[in-house]
Amino acid sequence: MSIIKAVDVSHVRFRAPDLPLMRGFLEDFGMRDAGGSDGNLYMRGQRAAPFIHVTEPGDPGFIGFGLWASSLDDLERLAAKTGIASQPCRAPGGGRVVCLTDPDGYIVEVGAGQDPATPLKMPATIPWNQGGEYPRKGVFRRVPPQPSNVLRLGHVVVAVTDFRKSEQWYKEHFGLLTSDEIRPGGEHDRAIGAFLRCDRGDDLCDHHTLFLVEAEGAPRFIHSAFEVADFDDLMRGHEYLKTRGREHFWGVGRHYLGSQVFDYWKDPWGNEIEHWTDGDKLPADQQGGFGTIDDLLGVQWGDPMPIPDAALSDH
Predict the structure, then answer these.
(1) Over 80: is that where the pLDDT of 310 sits?
(2) Looking at residue 313, what is its pLDDT?
(3) Dihedral (Cα; 64, 68, 73, 76), 10-degree rounding
(4) What is the pLDDT of residues 57-92, one digit of tens each?
(5) What is the pTM of this model?
């Protein structure tokens, strides 16, 4: 039994020496300034999460990420079991937070009790004329040039020193479930990583909330992934980021594991950041599977990963 069952990933946290530069990039990426009064940069998406991306002033680097507990009672249970007291959260939305450190030194900020933000207005959804059905009658599809509409943070990917040790820590603390293990040589090979998701019972969860992979040079950040409105919105963001001179990394394509349509970019300090849409959703009772390295790095369609010889180092 785990101490608590986390319900979702909440945010990623970085350091950077130039917060206006980071804000400009994230606005181009499709986020909005969430305010805040502690000297950090907080950015939000379209939905009710108070913030989804935090940058502190300082030397560039990845600090950690956040998870949501289901309630303040759960948060206090976590605090009691770990011996780390909850603290008031100074970020937008308030609430309380317990700050843990995982086996590789990543900070994991577990929060509850935040006041939700007011969701931002989304563009109207226009149906697709496809599959022999034509619901869009007399309505033109016009996609104006502007950033994507980032909805929320979907998952975080990090390299770890010892996959099984890290997996055990996250499962014991937060009740995460395995969607797919990565076994390079096939089903009977040693697992070097796994796509993990939150246990929400019958409520569906993304195929992965957290991906851990044992890789040379660990620990290190690999990427964070943010859901956008739909495929047109992803492609609109792709074109907009190109016009803004931002650094593209990989995509557009569709993953095998998780099935997301993806598009990867790099922020001004080289951190990978992904737009995605149309990912798999799973209930808690769906059994986990496995994938090979080819499944992990391959695509159902789209360009192959640009640096296949360094795949585990760069993805």
Answers:
(1) no
(2) 41
(3) 0
(4) 999 999 999 999 999 999 999 999 999 999 999 999
(5) 0.95
CA distances from 246 to 86, 155, 187, 233 (A): 39, 22, 39, 17
174: DSSP letter: H
- C-alpha to C-alpha distances, 112 to 5, 80, 196, 313, nearest whole angstrom: 12, 15, 21, 34
Quote the mean pLDDT of the chain. Answer: 95
DSSP state of 139: -
* Helix (H), strand (E) at residue 40: none
Tokens of 260: 């997301």
User: What phi and psi values does residue 186 have, to the nearest 5 degrees?
Assistant: 120, -175
Would you state the structure tokens that stand for residue 153, as one six-digit string? Answer: 């943070």
Q: Tell whether omega for the bond before 103 is within 30 degrees of 0, i.e. cis.
A: no
Average pLDDT over residues 155-182: 98
Helix extents (H) in the chain? 19-29, 72-82, 163-174, 231-243, 293-297, 311-314
Q: How confident is the model at residue 312, as a pLDDT?
A: 44
Token output for 154: 């979907």
